[in-house]
């Protein structure tokens, strides 16, 4: 909410703004979210940017909350991905947190994620992990994507901290949880929806990443109405 109101502050610092709800609050349709008082010209100048941001980010938070609610009672945590709108990554990730989820990583600097193209370039997932581990500090976590459970033990031995189970059904994820036995964090990803997320969470996986939280969340319909 504060972000949308900040737009009006930047347009005209004589405008008086006030939030009536907090980030992360669940609200019903028709709820009054905030007030803006002052010059109508200034309010209209900031209206569309503020509403576009508020609607889009509220949509991200709402989609996140749906999945977080769906996995309640399991050990799984809902996280986002880097599939964000250019220039809005930080804001969309803030919205995921407001919806009760967690951020995966912000960029290429705070965690290594080895995906299929990296693996193809060096020959195997385990080899990619070994090369990455030899190049970075021990404090930087390395995550590797696998599509075959036969690779799980190999990448653990190679030094992976997190293993991403790509497009695996719940039964396969459950087997992976048994094999890993807590030695690494396990992340499930790939086409997971509100309909399927509960079954994935009940497999015992630690993390469930969903790109749709940021790249496909529908914007909420938010309006600004003048009062006499």
The CATH superfamily of the largest domain turns out to be: Aldolase class I
Report the CATH architecture of the largest domain.
Answer: Alpha-Beta Barrel
Distance between the termini: 23 Å
Taken together, the total number of domains comes to 2
Task: Report on the architecture of this protein.
- The model has no long low-confidence stretch (mean pLDDT 96).
- This protein folds into two domains: 2-64, Quinolinate phosphoribosyl transferase, N-terminal domain (Aldehyde Oxidoreductase, domain 3, Alpha-Beta Complex), CATH 3.90.1170; 66-215, Aldolase class I (TIM Barrel, Alpha-Beta Barrel), CATH 3.20.20.70.
- The longest helix is centred in the first third of the chain and has 31 residues, at 40-70.
- The strands form two sheets. It has a six-stranded parallel sheet.
- The chain is an alpha/beta fold and 228 residues long.
- The radius of gyration is 21 Å and the shape is elongated.
- The chain has helices spanning 2-11, 40-70, 89-98, 116-122, 125-135, 152-158, 170-180, 197-201, 212-215; strands at residues 16-19, 34-37, 77-79, 112-114, 142-146, 162-166, 185-189, 207-209.
